Structures are given as C-alpha cells and as structure tokens.
Prior knowledge:
By secondary structure, the protein is of the alpha+beta class. The chain is built from 2 helices and 5 strands; from the N terminus they run ββββααβ.
Amino acid sequence: MLRIRNILPVLKSEEDAVLASFVVQVESDKGVQQFWAEARKCPNAEAQIDWSDDLSNLLSEFSVAREAYDHLNQAVFSTFLGEQVEYPINLAKAT
C-alpha cells in the first residue's frame, strides 16, 4: 500500500522560481513519511511540479504505474491552485 495522506502548504521559498512549497505526507508499510514538493515557474505552463528525489525513489521502490505519478502531480497542482483534494489518494495497492 502506498497512498498520499495529505499535502500541506509551507512557507514560500526565498527562491524566485518557486511559487509555492508543500509537504507531501505519504503512508506505506514503512509508516508515514514526509517529502517536499514545489510548484515552480515554467515558461510554457502555469507551473511545473517538482518533488524530492526521496519521493521519486519511494515511487520506484513500489513500482507504481505512470498513472500514480500523474495523480501525485495533479494533487500537488490542485493544492497549489487552492482546490479541494480528497484524501487518501492511492498510488499503489498492497502486494
């Protein structure tokens, strides 16, 4: 099991390219872990979503489908826009 429990906005970064920063709470068989994510300025879109290498590694460890990356990206973007997001968001089922 791998799922997003919550995405919480944090104080704005001092870096100019960062529009907003977030803490992504992820629950797995390892317990609840926290990772960072950011909405960054992007010349070709409203914003580009980036997240920590540790979160990418966790997604790889669970061999999540491409769809899970899309769900994570959309959840962070929706949070950035101030839209309501329903949790938990399942990224991988128990094996």
